[in-house]
Structures are given as C-alpha cells and as structure tokens.
Structure to design on (475 residues):
C-alpha cells in the first residue's frame, strides 16, 4: 500500500527519479538503465511532454468542449522507445470521455504483469487521476476500461498469487462503505498542494514527526495518503503493533485503512459485519416523494428563505448532528432516526435544485427539460429523486452514517471557504451527500420496519430483517 501511494504521487507530480521511488519500491532499480531515473517513467511524459502538460490540456479541452473525443494522453514515444532498454512504458494511451455527466477513462496497455503492474499500481494510479479529472470537470466518476494486449503472471510469482487467492475472503470493504476521502483541490492550487505533499513526505522519511501538519493538510484524499506514508516511516522507526493500530485508526472508515488492516494485521475480515436486509428502493422513493409533496404544500419555500448558509446549510447540519447523536447512542425521542434520515435526504436533494437555480451549468447537468426555478415547488425535487439509484450493497447503519457525516463535513468546510459561487464544486459535494444519505436511509429502513411502516404508503417495502439485528443495524 505504501509503494502504491508513493508511486502514484510520483507519477502525478511528473517525476521519474529513483532517489524517491526506491525508498518505497526497492526493486524499481532493477528496471532503471542508469539507476538514477526511469527513462520510461509516466510522470514526465504525462506532465511535460516537450513542454506540454497533457493532464492540463485534457482538463482544458473537456471543460471547453465536454463532447470532445480528443482528450488523449500518450505515454509511448516512438522517437525514444524503440531502443534496447530495461524500461519501455507498459501503459501507452489514456483516453478521457465525458458522457451524461460522467467521466469515462480508457487505458491501453501493451503488456501487464497482473500482480505487480495491473494490481500493484496501474489500477490505483489511473483511478486517482480519473477522480481528479472528474473533480476538475465538475462531473461524476464513470467506468474505466483496460485494453491489455498481454496480461500475464510470471511463474516465480505463482506461490504469491496462490497466497493472495487463498487469503481473499470475498469482500473488499466497499460493501460496507470503507470508502476513502475524496479529492478536493482546484486545479489552480494543485501544483502548490503537490509541493507541500512532497515536502512533508521528505520530512517523514527523514524521521520528523509531522502529525500536526498532516492533520491540517488541505486535500482530504492526499491527506489520507500522507497519513499512510507516515505509518510506513513509523514502522521503520520501530513503532509496535499497538502504535501501528492507533495510526491506522486515524484513517477512519476508509479504504486505505481497510487495506492496511489486511497488510499489517491480516484482520480485514473482522472489520465486516453481515449486511442489513434489502429494501425496495423504488417503493420507498415514491413514499418519500409523497411525503415531500405534502410538506411542500404546508411549508413552501421556507427551507431556503434565508439563503444557502443560514437556511439550507443550517437545516442539513441540524439533521446530520441529530443523526450522529442517535447513532452514537442517544435516545431518538419523538422523531425517529428514519424520520431524520429522510429529512436529510430531502434537504440534500433540494439543495441540488437550489444550485441549479444559481448556475446554468448545474441546471444543464441535472435537468433534461430546461427551466429557470428548479427549487420552487416539488417538480425539480421529484425529477432528481426519480433519477437516483443505489449502487452496490448497503452497509450497516453505523457505516453508512459515518459516510454521510464525512460527506456533510466536506460540504460544510467548502461552504465556509466559498460562501459565494463555485456552484459546480458545490454540486459535486451535494451529490455525494445525497448518495450517502440515500444509502443511510436504506440501512435504517432495513433495520427499522416499524419506522418504515409509519411513512405514507410504506407498508410493503421491507423484506425480513435477519434474526439478531438490533435497531442500529448491527449484530
């Protein structure tokens, strides 16, 4: 995990020096002609091909023309690579496409070792660039497709592959929302944030304690990367098992924490619990729409009357705070947890309609039929609700609540820093909050059939709750 993160950052920064990479990937020197650089390293080719930053050019092209089919980065150079060398680029071509508000990525590879190349770095590094590009374009992350001419496993790695397959417990962590923080750095700040990241990495490698500075690092995803790198150097300095666990726990309910639990302690399977029962989302969605329609008649536009910060953000914060308290063990009182979660989802979706009122770019992304005031009345809300779907299995209430809380915190911080404008960036954060609120609602509904029955028209949307599940969805 440490090498995967370190090499990813090295590529994205446009570097190809062995001095940095060999600290994390000792075998990298075996593929360097001069033991100083990787002549075929992706970094300089991606970020400085004859003075062209291909990442920036793709970003600018797709911002100006989202329908473009020319957003291509080339990594194989025929002028340099038809030579006798230890290092010819294996990944040769990256193609970004924007379709229906999502960024798709196609990767063409001449030759891929499934253990070291494909699994060890390529899927990870390009997924990070993919997420970054989606953020810079104000779009969702779509699928990535790999076209690989030769995908292989070397004979000397058979035993290692067998161990990996034997130890795989059929779960990845994503089933219970062990999902990492999201990238949130605007392009104009990216170079400075990278410089700061590598400064902290170098100081960690030299033995400094940068804990406080890492905690204040501005980008959530890259902060988690630094936290992981800090664990590598703490281990090198002799940190015992207890200290390592403390540092991994600081990564929270993230995919990186899940991976490090497996790498360091071999206990990732113990982090998973049985999923809660399924809920018929289509029926529940219509019940929420009916409930909102009746409330809209009663309360009208009071939810947004005093603007984005005073009314909308305050409503979201009030609901999120209450969810945190109840999931943490406080009594629910007259308003059930499901009531609160439904309100959070409703406010999150309504916030998206508000953003559409402020920005034609947002409106064009969200709505197909045009219009001017998407947040007035129930129509805009209902269109967005019916466009929503659920991806993957829903985790426990605690897991989904943690994700919703993290999503709200990111939105809250961004709103404080950008009280005006930045509508597409706000939309990306709002959509994440909506997605997590939806999953949380399904988790609560599956663990609280009585609460579901109390919603209008919801008497038949539940399947059976497994024996042994308590009201919080746990075991």
């Amino acid at each position: 995990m440490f090498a995967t993160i370190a090499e990813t950052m090295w590529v994205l920064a446009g570097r190809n020096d062995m001095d940095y990479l060999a600290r994390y990937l000792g075998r990298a020197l075996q593929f360097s002609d001069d033991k100083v650089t990787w002549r075929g390293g992706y970094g300089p080719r991606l970020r400085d091909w004859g003075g062209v930053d291909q990442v920036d050019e793709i970003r600018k092209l797709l911002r100006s023309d989202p329908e473009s089919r020319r957003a291509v980065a080339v990594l194989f150079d025929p002028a340099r690579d038809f030579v006798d060398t230890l290092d010819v680029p294996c990944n040769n071509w990256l193609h970004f496409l924007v379709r229906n508000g999502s960024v798709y990525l196609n990767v063409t590879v001449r030759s891929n070792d499934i253990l070291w190349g494909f699994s060890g770095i390529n899927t990870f590094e390009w997924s990070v660039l993919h997420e970054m590009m989606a953020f810079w374009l104000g779009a969702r992350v779509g699928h990535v497709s790999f076209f690989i001419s030769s995908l292989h496993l070397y004979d000397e790695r058979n035993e290692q592959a067998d161990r990996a397959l034997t130890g795989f417990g059929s779960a990845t962590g994503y089933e219970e929302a062990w999902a990492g923080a999201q990238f949130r750095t605007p392009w104009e700040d990216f170079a400075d944030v990278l410089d700061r990241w590598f400064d902290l990495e170098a100081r960690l490698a030299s033995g400094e304690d940068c804990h406080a500075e890492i905690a204040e690092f501005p980008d959530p995803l890259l902060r988690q990367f630094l936290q992981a790198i800090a664990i590598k150097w703490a281990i090198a300095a002799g940190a015992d098992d207890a200290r390592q666990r403390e540092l991994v726990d600081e990564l929270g309910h993230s995919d990186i924490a899940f991976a490090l639990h497996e790498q360091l302690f071999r206990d990732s399977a113990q982090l998973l619990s049985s999923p809660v029962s399924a809920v018929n989302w289509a029926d529940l969605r219509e019940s929420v729409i009916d409930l909102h329609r009746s409330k809209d008649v009663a309360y009208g536009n009071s939810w947004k009357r005093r603007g984005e910060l005073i009314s909308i953000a305050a409503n979201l914060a009030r609901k999120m705070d209450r969810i945190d308290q109840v999931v943490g063990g406080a009594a629910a009182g007259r308003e059930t947890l499901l009531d609160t979660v439904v309100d959070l989802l409703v406010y999150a979706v309504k916030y998206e309609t508000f953003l559409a009122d402020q920005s034609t770019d947002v409106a064009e992304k969200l709505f197909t039929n045009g219009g001017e005031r998407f947040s007035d009345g129930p129509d805009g809300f209902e269109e967005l609700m019916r466009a929503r779907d659920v991806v993957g299995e829903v985790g426990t209430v605690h897991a989904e609540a943690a994700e919703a809380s993290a999503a709200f915190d990111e939105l809250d911080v961004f709103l404080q820093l950008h009280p005006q404008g930045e509508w597409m960036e706000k939309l990306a954060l709002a959509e994440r909050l909506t997605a997590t609120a939806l999953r949380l609602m399904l988790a609560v509904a599956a663990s609280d059939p009585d609460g579901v029955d109390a919603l209008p028209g919801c008497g038949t949307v539940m399947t059976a709750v497994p024996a042994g599940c308590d009201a919080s969805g746990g075991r």
Notes: Residues 170-272 form one domain.
